[in-house]
Design goal:
33% of the residues lie in helices and 18% in strands. The chain is of the alpha/beta class and 419 residues long.
Length: 419
């Protein structure tokens, strides 16, 4: 059995605004939410910029327990899941055993793990850290706690789990949830991704491999995908959650939809932990497979939401992959990277980008690539610089690329589109 799967609810906690509508307003206006790092002391680091979320757990409706003990990433996930469920009007309309949760995260509860370890070990001076361990430490250690918290929040008693595939975790989590509904395992899934990685260990990790931007004196323009002067990505944080439902569930309750997930595919490059093949063949393979599943010809795409991290090698790799998979259509389809505005939130960004795609379809508006003033002449596609573009947007491709060689693609379509 292969069933159609629709997005009926969206929740977003992102830099620039902790709600779906604030997120879309930032994107549509082409504003950036990158700034000088404030969640940890920026002084020791090579890259001192970040895309941070202005988040208030109390304002988000979290309980005292949730606000005081959960990792920041788990708090993001709960807030986004609440917004998605409310948006879908979904709660209690799906039998608990037919509802599930799938969460993507690359680094789990990094923030709390590091915070607690530093406290217990006196900043690493002691080996004996156990006597002061808080009872919540175990939940920081196992990323599955994210799925457990969300499942309890939304009353989902069916299959739940966590997907961790680096920077493609978000798109892969939604892809897995799509397959669960497609195959009839579940009728409704709350799916998405969450990440709160802005801590000393994470900043130091990316400093070590020189992957992050050093435009410390100009934080708002630090993320520059496809620009000649690009110098790496800006670390971000956030969450996006979705309610995915089978066609039968949508029809039974007369739910509104943002779009249909038409196709999803993932490939690995089996090449290098951080390096990319110059021809982009793995990402091209994922794109082709996703388009084939969705029965969409490249020339019928209205928009490509690119991974567009702003590193020298990624933007070249992705441009090559799009040319290989889309052929001549690569030169005519609008392409943009929202990482220029909300940074790169590692495992969460794929889900946040899917939210951008769904909103682009709803508003028939393509978000721009901010800070793109001097396009790299080697990158010769239409990257929608600086300003959003109004046009009919019924069919969208989103791509993801992650350390470890993970390459993923997903196609969203308007269910009323003409094939």
């Amino acid at each position: 059995m292969s069933r159609r799967v629709f997005i009926t609810g969206i929740g977003v906690v992102a830099p620039g605004g902790p709600s779906r509508d604030e997120f879309w307003k930032l994107l549509s206006e082409g504003r950036t939410a990158t700034r000088t790092l404030s969640l940890t002391d920026p002084t020791p680091f090579r890259s001192r910029v970040a895309a941070e979320v202005d988040f208030d757990p109390e304002a988000a409706g979290l309980s005292d327990r949730q606000a005081n003990t959960l990792d920041r990433a788990a708090q993001f996930a709960l807030a986004a899941a609440r917004e998605a469920v409310a948006d879908a009007g979904w709660r209690d309309t799906c039998a608990p055993e037919r509802a599930g949760v799938v969460i993507g995260s690359a680094v789990g509860a990094t923030t709390k793990l590091e915070e607690v370890y530093r406290k217990m070990s006196r900043d690493g001076q002691l080996w004996d850290v156990l006597p002061e361990a808080p009872t919540a430490l175990y939940s920081y250690f196992v990323p599955s706690s994210f799925a457990s918290e969300v499942a309890a929040e939304v009353g989902a008693g069916g299959q739940s789990g966590v997907i961790s595939t680096g920077c493609t975790s978000g798109i892969d989590a939604i892809g897995y949830a799509w397959e669960l509904v497609q195959d009839g395992v579940l009728d409704c899934v709350v799916a998405g991704a969450t990440e709160a990685p802005i801590s000393p260990i994470t900043v130091a990790c990316f400093d070590a491999i020189k992957a992050t931007s050093t435009y410390n004196d100009d934080p708002a323009a630090a993320s520059r995908p496809f620009d000649s002067s690009r110098a790496g990505f800006v670390l971000g944080e956030g969450s996006a959650m979705f309610v995915l439902e089978s066609e039968e569930s949508v029809l039974a309750r007369g739910a509104g939809v943002y779009g249909e997930i038409g196709g999803y595919a993932s490939r690995g490059n089996a090449f290098h932990m951080t390096g990319l093949t110059p021809d982009g063949r793995e990402l091209a393979g994922a794109v082709t497979a996703a388009l084939t599943q969705a029965r969409v010809a490249p020339e019928n795409l209205d928009y490509v939401n690119a991974h567009g991290s702003g590193t020298k090698q990624n933007d070249k790799h992705e441009t090559a992959a799009l040319k290989a998979s889309l052929g001549a259509a690569a030169y005519s389809v609008p392409i943009s990277s929202i990482k220029s505005m909300v940074g790169h939130s590692l495992g969460a960004i794929g889900a946040i980008e899917i939210a951008a795609c769904a909103m682009a379809m709803r508003h028939n508006s393509i978000p721009p690539t901010a800070n793109l003033h001097d396009q790299d002449p080697e990158l010769d596609l239409d990257y929608v610089p600086l300003l959003s573009r109004q046009q009919r947007t019924d069919t969208v491709l989103t791509t993801g690329s992650g350390f470890g060689g993970f390459q993923s693609a997903m196609v969203l379509t308007d269910p009323n589109r003409q094939s």
